[in-house]
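Re-running the complex after MR caught last week's input typo. The corrected sequence lines follow. Everything else is unchanged.
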Amino acid sequence: MRDFWRALTRGSGWLGLAGLLLIVVLVLLAAFGPLLDLPDPTRTNLRARMVAPTLSWAGLGAHPLGTDQLGRDILSRIVAGSRVTLMVAGAAVVLGGILGTLLGLASGYFGGLLDRLLMRLVDIQLAIPLMLLALMVVAALGPSLHNLIGVLALVSWVRYARIVRGQVLAVREREFVQSARAIGASAPRILLVHILPNVLTPAVVVATLELARVIVLEAGLSFLGLGVQPPAPSWGRMLAEGRTYISSAWWIITFPGLALMLTVLSVNLLGDWLRDYLDPRLKVR
Amino acid sequence: MARYLLGRLFDGLVAILGVVTIVFVISRLLGDPTVLLLPVGATEAQMAELRAGLGLDRPLWEQYLTFLAGAAQGNFGDSFQFMRPALDVVLERMPATMALAFSALGFGLVFGAVAGSLAALFRGTVVEAAVMVLALLGQATPVFWLGLLLILLFAVELGLLPTGGYDSPASLILPALTLGTFTTASIARLLRSGMLDVLRDDHVRTARAKGLKPATVFLWHVARNSLIPVVTMTGILAGELLGGSVVTETVFSWPGVGRVIVQAMEAKDFPVVQAGVMVIATTFVVINLFVDLLYGILDPRIRRRG
Amino acid sequence: MLEISDLSVGFSREGRFARVIPGLSYSLRRGETLGIVGESGSGKSVHALALLGLLPQPPGKVLGGQAIFRGEDLLTVPEARLRELRGGQIGVVFQDPMTALNPVLTVGRQIAEPLMRHKGMTRRQALDRATDLLALVGIRDAARRLSQFPHEFSGGMRQRVMIAIAISCEPALLIADEPTTALDVTVQGQILDLMAELRERLGMTMIWITHDMGVVAGIADTIQVMYAGRTMERGPVEAVFASPRSAYTWGLLQSLPHGARPPGGRLHQIPGQPPDMFNLPPGDPFAPRNPFATERCHVEAPPLRQVEGSVPGHLAAAWYDLPALLERAR
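Corrected-run output:
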């Protein structure tokens, strides 16, 4: 842990540190947002429609980032939207990570037909652009929070599976695994006790890189109207709704997009750094 | 080389077969299309008749084979919206999508290559820092937001370019820029790190020891070797481009395949959705075949392995 | 032919700085073969890269000195002129033939490059010449192999290709930086013989850098033993082998097995670690590993002086009298 900190605060590690700090701020904002004295993100006020942002430090107005076409406060919608984004993306990454890691473990350890089938499936899934696959599945199941999480998890398992499988293949023939097998340890035990710890590092790196991808994907689906459903605020849908008013109220699309970009940027920064720090071999994906 | 390509071709065909299967499975999850096809208040008998007509009363495996046979002939049924073969509806939109995707790819490759090379050549200077910051931002900016910002700047504020549509060559500029930014950023980063790696390679020192001019060394011993990962990346980016085109086309009202898929989804026009997904996936597979071919040409170690 | 005086090279790493070569001087006559011997970190390769302007900068830096090659100072000539000399009048063979060739260009193209650059040949002419060169370095079926890629050649064959590249423009000086170290023992002998033969044929002056005393015995006229960037001993091969005056030279010779020994067999290590250039002891840098070190060795670095009672040009840097000490030990 001390090495981790030292690496993070030295040389080019500051980029990773910046990413980590931004993420911490974001998570705190999402977690404690409701405690801030912000207007209700879903309360409409037609008399205060499209109020321009007041960004002067002389005094923040009632709506520092302005209001949208229905008079809702944009700042509080962004804060509320961050909860949705982080929850959906986080859950999807965890689920997809568990699914992909388990399948990758099985594929790498047992090999044979199972391995061939799973890796075929990976190839096939990679032949469909993520966005389209997600679009198709959401359209089939209907847009809801659970479906959204499920779909995002389903489209992201492949990358974990691939990398974990590769790692298992490398570890499988090592002495400690062989000796565990020789003393008659069961396959699940070998997998969980001896192999899993060795694949966790690359899995964590993939998870970080995947998090950014899933956040963008979720926002894209919401932008197309297939994500989180109203009235729950979501960055993607804020952008979609603000699109119509682009010529009269620039702030409606600007701030949610900025929040999205900063989030993705910070996750990318942390992910890149983690990859370089933990496992430089993953560089070329 | 021939065997390598045949192998890749086989993989591609299997992938397409797999996509057909996934599309079939998902389309069966969609439920009973008869409800959508018949007017409200249709009788049970009418529905049963239509179901039989569509073959939905058959066992699942038989339906699958029928679907497969249809897909092989490019028959995905008629579009519910347009009452025409769904594949025709999709293929009509292909030129627009191809124009967009290839302009974006071209833009990304050219600018990404230039920026990445500059960053590698001027490492440790403000040039490298600027390229890296822009590339990081470019990779983190979601396509649809970038599209909106560009519309805001170039169409709304400056009034230089159209906000969307498919009327003049000028209307291609903003969508291509939007879609190509991620590609540009990815290529720039990849090429920079690739070149920095190659610059450390022994063979570059050999080239310099021969007294070759710096331009020759850079072109034939650094850039030429750094191209291989870029080609691999291009195959991956093609997927991002085709997926991103769905959103970009929506933002700019670009009449391409992506937009028709989204519209068909809203209208529950499943034959068009299926045909659209198949066309995009097939395009992706074909692009990756070309990438493999190019890879084989660029890397002699693969060419000879056969 | 080559006159190096007071060449000094520094390296920086993590904010620390070290003079890896504090001031190296030697001269090389036309037609002479100089064998430079030392462990890794002795500065033997670094000094060659510095001469050629191939030192990676940073972290390396040439701090000063002169290297007059045929009337021109390699360290100060314009970069463009140095490039003409490199590959044209000075050829180089590097250590590892597995990485020194470009994997994605044909072997023919890589041999043709310097010919097109320095001899003004067309591609056609250069490729014809490349065929002759491949045959010259002992590669059979040269015309066909010209269009092959490095990975289709074995390690020894690749080193022959490297040699073909280095001699393509018939350089006056050939620098060979451990050209046999990365090869199989059996192949080492072949490459050694090939280079000796080419040297006679082309009348080249040669600097042969190695850690292997056995190789030097076979090919060099003069030997120069380096340690921590300094010359510990230098002189005609026979004189130095017969009566080494530096304990370091003696150690290197001791680790040679006596009797019949194939050239290029592994060097037996002298006890202790090669010096940490960022943390050198005061005095003679070899003193901590030297069983004969005197107190003076630990505080004051010995100068390189003519050895009394030996042939002219036999120089050594030692405070102690090694033959007397060895006599006493016996």
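None of the earlier attempt is carried over here. Chain B touches chain C at residues 201-203, 205-213, 216, 220-221, 224-225, 228, 298-301, 304 (CB under 8 Å). Chain B has 13 helices and no strands.
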